[in-house]
Specification:
heterodimer, A: mainly alpha, 4 helices, 75% helix, B: mainly alpha, Sodium/glucose cotransporter, 2 domains, 71% helix, 1% strand, globular
């Protein structure tokens, strides 16, 4: 076993870390941002067609829906990145 | 059929199902006992994780807490779901790639230190055991409420059932019973919610009905609720009463605590591949969000119903269910001004009605006048929620003892069969101990749960994340960080909860952060201490560097797992 990953492993890791950082910014923005810090301000707006004040809705509904979307997005993107970098597990499973 | 008969039939049928599943999925090796042989599909693991996660507190108490605190209740909604994003992005795929059996396994191997392993074992035991005691109590409460046996008898029945399938099937048995338990509990939660949403707003989807107009007045429901709150002197429902700092810190402590809970992390060791760990975190959160987005809707409907039913009404003329719940002590009426009317206001000196939060879910079917079988369904759902969480926690307790203490630290020569036997015995002992605590609960169960989250946040999470994302992090850094986080968080909580509870208010708190939220600061302290100490001590050796390289890439997921595969067939139960 080598002590450092081959270059494609390093590139894969870099792409992964960048994607994780971007998604964590969004994670923070929908919950701590829209649901807490900006909630009093967003509460002046109503979600169109409903009785929800926007900050309240983000805290009790929107942030959770966004979390689900973020994880599925990450899983999909990582499947693609792993295919592109030739690091996906499928061919290996088939070989067994 | 009466309510009682319906409850017996539905609860009995659900128990028969769990036992049948347990008999079909017995564990034959330690690999199957600890991680179900690593052969669980991502959707099945998502379902099992959702049931594992949602406890009696989520099922019975959460909607009630939101109902009485409005916006402030959002800390639980965001806090108990947002942690899954951290799990999926920062922990689950890498821990699955590492692929041994427990969280202390990872800490011990990554930091190549028995010290770090022992600190992790102690945290895992403490966090899981405090949690499981609360679950056994929850089982007892549901039994006594719906089947009219004493709470103690209820705890014993619950113990017997968990003992049967956890000891027999280990993780394999638990996983497949949890899948069934999720189905029971979500059905039991959604049916009354849909009925009530239809009654109050005419919209069958609670998440939408919540934002719609009230059928009775035509005014948006939440606006009406804010108005009712203003009349009675409560803080507006959609604004809440907690300070922003505190809401921020509590939410963060719950999120990070969720990501650091060993019984949740260990579920991601059970899937087949690294990519399955990511997908199953998504499925788990989707299944959790189904209940968690319904809860605030139920809370708002119940709050409106409740205020309209009781406020300013003659006590003698209240509906029958009020009297029934008064007998149990969950509703108390004290006619202070002697006019026979219920005065329900924010001011404690003149308020005449006190209502327990658990009543919101328990009494919902009666408040909405739903058929008798729905009551039986809610009982079965509450039991499914409590039992599935208890079983998952007990497995962590037993594997911490048989695997992390016995096999990895005390007597490494123990055989596979000996370890499996030890795992079964420690699971049995843990069930009995948890049952004992459930029957003789310490007076501070609720406080202790806040403790569990704070400790998970301030100890495990930084050690795990740094272990994966920092090559430089070494054993000294991780151990000092964990100890600093633990010491700070426990000192703060013990001070305000046990030593000086009279000073537990915003004026005395550090920067306005309550003991519930202090785990966030403990976590930051842990990160800081770990990074500083690691800078001044030697970096990890080449073997550990190799381990870090290995867990970062998915290819070759069976590096450390080869042994596990050799000993267990990969077929599903």
């Amino acid at each position: 076993m080598t002590s450092h990953p081959p270059p494609r492993g390093q590139r894969y890791w870099l792409r992964n870390v960048r994607l994780v950082a971007l998604l964590l910014v969004l994670w923070f923005a929908v919950s701590y941002g829209a649901g807490i810090l900006l909630a009093p301000w967003l509460n002046n707006v109503r979600l169109p067609g409903t009785g929800f004040r926007l900050g309240f809705w983000m805290a009790q509904q929107g942030s959770m829906l966004a979390f689900v979307a973020l994880i599925f997005f990450y899983a999909r993107r990582m499947d693609r990145i792993e295919r592109e970098e030739g690091l996906d597990e499928r061919d290996e499973e088939d070989a067994q | 059929m009466s309510v009682q008969a319906w409850t017996f039939v539905i609860v009995g049928a659900s128990f028969a199902l769990y036992i049948a599943i347990a008999l079909r999925s017995r564990a034959k090796s330690t690999g199957e006992f600890y991680v179900a042989g690593g052969g669980v599909s991502s959707v099945a693991n998502g379902l099992a994780t959702a049931a594992d996660w949602m406890s009696a507190a989520s099922f019975l108490s959460m909607a009630g807490i939101i109902s009485f605190t409005g916006y402030d209740g959002s800390v639980y909604l965001m806090g108990w779901t947002g942690g899954y994003v951290l799990l999926a992005l920062l922990l689950a795929p890498y821990l699955r790639k590492f692929g041994k059996f427990t969280v202390p396994d990872f800490v011990g191997d990554r930091y190549a230190s028995q010290w770090a392993r022992i600190v992790a074992v102690v945290c895992a035991l403490f966090v899981s055991f405090t949690y499981v005691a609360g679950q056994m109590r929850g089982v007892g409460v549901v039994f006594s409420r719906f089947l009219e046996v004493s709470i103690d008898t209820g705890v014993v029945i619950g113990m017997g059932l968990v003992l049967f399938y956890a000891v027999l099937g280990g993780m394999k048995g638990i996983t497949y019973t949890q899948v069934a338990q999720y189905c029971v509990l979500i059905f039991a939660y959604l049916v009354p919610a849909i009925f009530i949403s239809l009654q109050v707003t005419g919209n069958p989807v609670p998440q939408l009905g919540f934002g719609a107009a009230d059928l009775a007045t035509g005014q948006p429901l939440l606006e009406r609720l804010d108005g009712l709150h203003a009349e009675l002197g409560f803080a507006p429902y959609t604004d809440g009463a907690k300070s922003m700092v505190d809401v921020f810190f509590i939410t963060a402590a719950l999120m990070v605590g969720t990501a650091g809970l060993p019984h949740i992390i260990v579920r991601f060791y059970t899937v087949q591949k690294v990519r399955d760990a990511r997908w199953s975190a998504g499925w788990a959160l989707l299944f959790i969000a189904l209940l968690y987005t319904t809860a605030p809707a139920v809370a708002a409907f119940a709050r409106t119903n409740l205020i309209q039913t009781v406020s300013g009404k003659e006590h003698a003329g209240l509906p029958e269910w009020v009297g029934k719940w008064e007998q149990t002590g969950l509703i108390k009426f004290d006619d202070k001004d002697g006019d026979g009317r219920v005065r329900y206001v924010a001011d404690a000196a003149t308020n005449e009605l006190s209502i327990d939060k658990d009543i919101i879910v328990l009494a919902n079917p009666e408040i909405a006048g739903l058929p008798d079988w729905v009551v039986g369904l809610v009982a079965a759902g509450g039991l499914a929620a409590a039992l599935s969480t208890a079983a998952g926690l007990l497995l962590v307790v037993s594997s911490a003892i048989s695997h992390d203490l016995l096999k990895s630290a005390l007597c490494p020569q123990i055989s596979e069969r000996g370890e499996l036997l030890a795992a079964r015995i420690s699971a049995a002992v843990a069930v009995v101990a948890a049952g004992y605590v459930g029957i003789h609960p310490p007076g501070y169960v609720a406080e202790v749960v806040a403790f569990a989250f704070g400790l998970a946040a301030s100890s495990f999470f930084p050690a795990l994340v740094l272990g994966i994302f920092s090559r430089r992090m070494n054993a000294s850094g991780a151990v000092c960080g964990m100890l600093a986080g633990l010491a700070f968080t426990s000192a703060y909580i013990v001070h305000f909860k046990f030593l000086a509870p009279e000073s537990n208010d915003a004026q005395h708190w550090l920067w306005g952060i309550s003991p519930e939220g202090i785990g966030t600061l403990g976590m930051l302290l842990n990160f800081l201490v770990a990074l500083v100490v690691a800078r001044f001590t030697p970096p990890p050796n080449a073997q550990v560097q190799g381990l870090i390289d290995r867990i970062r890439v998915p290819r070759g997921a069976d590096g450390p797992r080869a042994a596990r595969r050799g000993e267990t067939p990969r077929g599903r139960a």
